[in-house]
Amino acid sequence: MAEKEDPKLKIAKVLKSLQAKPCKITEVSLRGVNLDDESLRQICEALATNTTVTSLDLSNNELEFTGAGVVAECLKLNKSINKVCLSNCKLKDQGTKLMAEMMLRNKAITTLVLQSNKIGVTDQVTGFDNGAIALVEMLKVNRTLTSLDLTNNFLRDIAAKAFGDMLPSNKTLVKLNIRENGWGPGATDKLCGGLTKNQTLATVHIKGNNMTNEAESQLKAFAPGRIVP
User: What global pTM score does this model have?
Assistant: First the structure.
């Protein structure tokens, strides 16, 4: 079995490749390397003007709000990255809002993965999913994002209503993954209306929510062939 590469050496290697003239790499994958603030800053500084990298994966690093801001500012400037994975980065609602604001400026990203970021947790008291609502507001005007993955967060029925209200106006999103968010049967009606008025969204993943069999059947009836249980 090959030895796991030392995280610090991996970060240094990626940074060296990004700073090379010309840069020849097309993918930056730094999953679970315990990125510190300075390393993140240097990576993002190099990526801001990079034109060869098309995929960025910083999953399993504790970016939190501050790190999310650094990444967001970088992606506002970058014009080549089309896939961004920030799963399990502890973004929560405030960091997610920064990602949504970034997407209002970015015209290159087509796939955004925000799995397991505790989106919705910080708003349990207020009952208002600020992170999810920010994403919905972005989707009303964004014309490049085709795939959004929000698996394993804490979105509630209010977010389902917001997504349902947004769908008629979005003609770009093709895949929406909302698995394992604890949505109950009440989310069904809120989604159904939007799905019937949106023919672009081809796949909606709903597995792992608290929907009854009846609710799932209702969704499938409103969006034949598009609901993945």
Answer: 0.94
CB 206 within 8 A of CB 184: no
The label of the residue with tokens 């999810």 reads 132
Which tokens sit at 87? 């799963």
In angstroms, rounded to a whole number, what is the distance separating the alpha carbons of residues 109 and 47? 14
Tokens representing residue 92 in the block: 């929560």
Beta carbons of 133 and 100 less than 8 angstroms apart: no
> pLDDT tens, 126-163?
545 689 999 999 999 999 999 999 999 998 888 888 99
Give tens-digit pLDDT for 11-20.
999 999 999 9
- Contact of 63 with 40, CB cutoff 8 Å: yes
CB 40 within 8 A of CB 67: yes
Q: Which phi and psi angles does 89 have, rounded to 5°?
A: -115, 10
User: SS3 string of 160-207?
Assistant: HHHHHHHHHHCCCCCEEECCCCCCCCHHHHHHHHHHHCCCCCCEEECC
d(CA 194, CA 177): 16
Q: What is the DSSP string of 67-109?
A: HHHHHHHHHHH-SS--EEE-TTS--HHHHHHHHHHHHHH-SS-
In terms of phi and psi (left: phi > 0; alpha: psi -120 to 50; beta: otherwise), the region of 208 is left
